[in-house]
Specification:
The structure is a homodimer.
Chain A: H1 5-18, H2 28-35, H3 39-51, E1 55-58, E2 64-67, H4 76-84, H5 112-128, H6 133-145
Bound molecules: iron/sulfur cluster (SF4) (2 copies).
The site of one iron/sulfur cluster has 9 residues of chain B, from helix 5.
The structure holds a DNA duplex.
DNA sequence: TTCATTATGGATCGTTAATATCCATAATAG
DNA sequence: CTATTATGGATATTAACGATCCATAATGAA
């Protein structure tokens, strides 16, 4: 149970893009150099982000990527769901006939075990969608403005 | 990002055990039959649960498994951490030298990206440790006592 | 137009994790 | 002593992850 490296790459790439001005395209070369990851692999991730409308891409000379919407409307949940897919935290393993035990109500979505896990998922998602790319930038800016008293 | 089937098996097996009286051992045969999963595989999972003190096991004739402590002190988080391991939701991918960008404070644990993900993990864990095996049983009992008005 | 640049998508490949089974061994009740 | 039952090692299969290469298309600039 761990997010893949791709999620980390995606988040960092988006933060990099968010620091540029709108209309300023950033190529895969600059991105992969900043994150220290191969162009080939990162481009796959960027392509996914584009398909889901998180970034825009322009091919050709002086092309590249830019955010498709403002950084405060790109949540961690958005990014994670694009990269990781929209699978559920918990997947049931029995079919219609193989009821493991009598205490569960298998009808529709009424199973109590499943309900707990769905609750967990909703809690997690609720947190993740309250945190945006812009949020990270803001927090960094605040820290920066607290003078140079961070170490020494 | 999904819990493995093993977590599902473990949770269901524990619920099965929790419905038995204390001192009554349940063999792997009964458990695997109830969950519709092979004895071989389930026994591995039960062995893990024993190593972590969730269940007790007795070898030999008329042996089997029982809960090592009361069902209201076995949380979903306990079970998940035993089966899935205690890995973090998010793992950083760069070393000391390859700082991806200047806005992060790499010193110690102060990175703002990491901080968001650790927050997500804490939220998730907080929810999961508030839900116990006994909690599922209680909810099922309540539902059962609400007469047979559930369907028809 | 032509060329260099840049993103895209398909194909492929190695590594790791998850799932699953088999068997030899040890422990225990009867 | 014997049947029963859990344990741990070894192994096999499958799927996911991580990563690379290349052919293609699109675009700005010469
Ligand atoms: S969680 Fe509920 S519905 Fe899902 S496999 Fe278990 S008993 Fe069945
Ligand atoms: S989350 Fe922070 S510490 Fe971790 S890789 Fe990213 S920048 Fe580095």
């Amino acid at each position: 149970m761990q997010y893949t490296k791709s999620t980390g790459y995606a988040l960092h790439a988006l933060i990099h893009l968010a620091q540029k001005d709108s209309g300023q395209y950033v190529g895969i070369k600059e991105l992969s150099a900043a994150l220290v990851v191969s162009e080939s692999y990162l481009s796959k991730i960027m392509s996914k982000l584009r398909q889901d409308g998180i970034v825009r891409a322009v091919t050709g000379a002086s092309g590249g990527y830019e955010l498709a919407r403002s950084a405060d409307r790109i949540t961690f949940l958005d990014v994670i769901q694009v990269v990781e897919g929209r699978q559920h935290l918990y997947e049931c393993f029995h079919g219609e006939e193989s009821t493991p035990d009598a205490i569960y109500d298998m009808d529709s979505e009424e199973c109590l075990v499943k309900k707990v896990m769905i609750g967990a998922e909703m809690h997690l998602h609720s947190y993740l969608e309250q945190h945006t790319i812009q949020g990270v930038l803001d927090a960094a800016a605040q820290r920066g403005s607290r003078a140079g008293n961070k170490k020494a």
